[in-house]
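Q: What does the assembly look like in three dimensions?
Context provided by user:
Components: two
Sequences:
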Amino acid sequence: MLQLLWLVVAIPFVSAALLALFGSSLPRRVVAILGAGSIGLSTFFTLLISAAFLISPPADNAYVLHLWTWMSSGEFHPEIALYLDPVSLLMLLVVTFVGFLIHLYSVEYMRNDEGYARFFAYMNLFVASMITLVLANNLLLLYLGWEGVGLCSFLLIGFWYREPQNVRAAGKAFIVTRFGDTAFALGLFLLFTRLGTLDIQEVMHRAAVQWSPGSGIAVEAAALLLGGAVGKSAQLPLQTWLPDAMAGPTPTSALIHAATMVTAGVYLIARTHVLFTLAPSIQFLVALIGAATMLLAAFSALAQRDMKRVLAYSTISQIGYMFLALGLGAWSAAMFHFMTHAFFKALLFLAAGVVIHAVHEQDLYRMGGLRKELRLAFWSFVIGGSALAGLPLITAGFFSKDLILWQSWAGPNGSAWFWIAGMTGALLTSLYTFRMILLAFYGPQQAHVKAVSGVAVRISLIVLCFLSVVGGYVDTPPDFGGVPALSNFLNSVLPPLEELHVGPINETITALSASTVFALGLGLAYLLFGPQRSRLPAHNFLERLWLAGWGFDWLYDKLFVRPFQWLTRKSARDMVDVPINGLAQVTILGYRALRLTQTGRVRWYATGLAMGTVVILAIALFVH
Amino acid sequence: MILPSLVLILIGGGIASGIAARRSVVVARWIAVASVLANLSMCFGIWMAHLDRSQSSTARWFVECDFAWIPQFGIRIHLAIDGLSLALLLLTYFLGVMAVLSSWTEIQERVGFFHFNLLWVLAGITGVFLAVDLFVFYLFWELMLVPMYFLIGIWGHERRIYAATKFFLFTQLSGLLMLVAIIALAVLHHQSTGVFTFDYEQLMQTALSPRTARLLMLGFLVAFLVKLPAFPLHTWLPDAHTEAPTAGSVVLAGLLLKTGAYGMIRFVLPFFPGPSHELAPIMMTIGVVGILYGAVLAVGQTDLKRLVAYTSVSHMGFVLLGVFAGNQIALEGAVVQMISHGISTGALFILAGLLQERMHTREISAMGGLWETMPALSGAGLVFAMASLGLPGLGDFVGEFLVLLGAYRANVPLTVLATLGLLAATLYGLRFAQNAFQGPNPHHWKLPDIRPREWAVLGLMMACLLWIGLYPQPVLKTVRSSLAAAQQRALPQEIVRR
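A: Here is the predicted structure of the complete assembly.
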């Protein structure tokens, strides 16, 4: 059964190619069947393979499927080979399953769009690239998937290409993430040059043997990979592309934020965790970046007016939690939060899509009172939002976030500061989540519903609602009599965290604090943004700063964009040509000057002859 | 006799096409296609016969043909084919067919003379890749030049005379330096052995003092650096590429530039191993400067063909970096880069030609929103832009990655700078793709989308890029032994050092 793994990758690639080549001449029904059906088929095979993997795990809990040698030069022989172990299996399940629900939703959501086939071609390519990234057994193939998702995000953000701001957002996403990719590529050169392989398992094995912890080379390697990860996962300082990525169709946002793309950085770090363990300073930096991004983005989410931008900043913030977990060595906690986040973030985006379609409005301050007319969207928001904010015990987000919060205290690298930061983030998350729900669904109704959702949309939302609730039960804290099944499953690949700090705060207190913070956020949101709605959109300096995402765009514009534009403008006329054309000019001048002597007058020529003779004689005489 | 016939078919085909055009233009075009196709299939035959042999066999050449021409000076018509020349010849004829097909509707004046020139350029290129007698090599080197001059000067765009003259002067002057170096080499060989010869393998053994070797090497190197082109000798290229008709640009970018890189690998590295090792850091630096300079200038261009021309400067910087990085991975990467750059840039020039044929402009600012009216053509443009910016899965990535991977061993700081070139490539790739195809359609263009003939051309090129991008093994296997032979003499130091 496991040897069918290649089908999971191949099906969406083939369907993307078919749609790209022949899509425009196919009827919409066929496009829909190809587009969503291919991902459905992939999901089906993934489920079969997962069952086979769980029932009879392969040796060492990992299965490698060699397809062919990509290129072979000197001692460099990267393969096209797939690697399945618990971590990639979890990723694969989430990517295909959530991806399939998003595709199913899109069949209906995009029905009236002229670029129907193009949309599904891009979406299928997106999922195919992500699957390649997840299943790659070497870093070069992972890099192929990595660049593939970058390309697809570019294509999808700019899907409605007639709007200049969409085009700009698409370009921005591609360029900003390519900054990270460049660091990643350098990391590959370094790893291969020092370790002689790019096979992920082999790299980690050799690094652990050859490099001592904290050595310069290990730090350099981990730092370069981190550069790639912050680009794709929209962490500081490369987070600026994600809020603008909202320009794409809403299902695209769901795909980028939940199943593909932004989680790639988290996966990369978890996948190569040994390298980060060997570089403690960089691992600490991962935690710092995570905590800082989580807080900054949460503040920004508080001030946004556009519903999708709230969700975008929320994604940046939640990925920050995952980075925090990775930085503290809580590998499986990060993967767990990745999974639950995929469920509730996909749900929130798809529900937001329903709202936006229904009222043709994205501004929260122009919505309000929609809970009666959009009941399913409302309940989706309540369930997804509660999971995001961590409603205790009955939502998936609670368990995964609680695990991170607890380990940020108890882990060997944990500290009170990370714990406090995590709690603050949780408070802000609860606050901005319920602000969004209150503004959109309570208060006076301002916009009217123009469209209702159909069956496919409903099915996707309901399934995701279900997952956002029960998804957390795969890993429950043993302190409350639960079973950490997922962590145990991942532990064969990702080493478990030693819980060291058993001080004044234990897991129960953490869970209670998190619950309190959730309630506090909810209450605050009700006071500030409740139905009486005394607050107006961003009116003081801080809120304007948050609205503008802390001014990073402004800063980068001044620091990089403008100087580079100036450089390209100034250098467009090739400077090197100046001396060369100058030489040509001198030659022409010389020719003109000499031409003056050619007058046709015999007297002039005779004079010239005479003068020349005199000069030559003089030279002959005096030189001797 | 198969090797001379490769040249003769093109020479004869050119003449036949020129004559036939007096009666029927279509026949002239078909004669051109047929003669290039004949060569392509012959080379394909050689490839199939020697693909497996290329690694095991000890013989240097797959096929060889040798007979005396001017015995007084030991000049022989000595042609030979090995993996490297075979790969480049396959590229030559593939792009040759594409060039003829892509000028099917563009060229309407003096069709016969056009195809005559086109085929004679290809004949010159064929000779350059085949000759292993240095005198004959020089003859073919010059043969490439004159028909190309006419192609640019007669069928070019607005500033064609300026561009053609500039091209001619640059290559002619640098070619003369090479001629001097060749003759000097032959004379020195005569002095030390008493035998007059221009034979490749014999001249390679000439004993030279380090000083002479350095001087002679420069003679060769300048000619090849101009052709490549390397910064700061590149300025003929943007003008020539921009002003040439589509087929001219394809042949220039796809093939003529490759003769420069070929010359370095075939002659400079094995003839002058010591000096090339000494000069390697400088050459690599020039390569990196070219990568960045070309990329930055490409971003600033407003003329589509000029933009693509500067990307060529950038891409050929990778080739220079790879050739002088002094290890197998980088050198093999450089050759893959040569081939895939030929295809991807050739395709971009064809695309620019299609746009110009439809819109009568090359200004990017006059485009915009073309996806709306030409979705298929725009989609193809996007694919080639992605190939050009080094997207994995397409050919250019394999070349660039191998070059950088190899160069990293030789020089880390330079490699880091060169990798920044990939970042700059994103900018010019997007500038082209976004400004031409996306955005609103402010000029309300309504244009016919791609036609079947054009689809066939671009589709084939896309398929080749995908093939090289995902399974470059056949290419690498074909060129491996020739590259090893070139490096064997060049870099014993490298092996000792590692």
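Follow-up: The first helix of chain A runs from residue 5 to 22.
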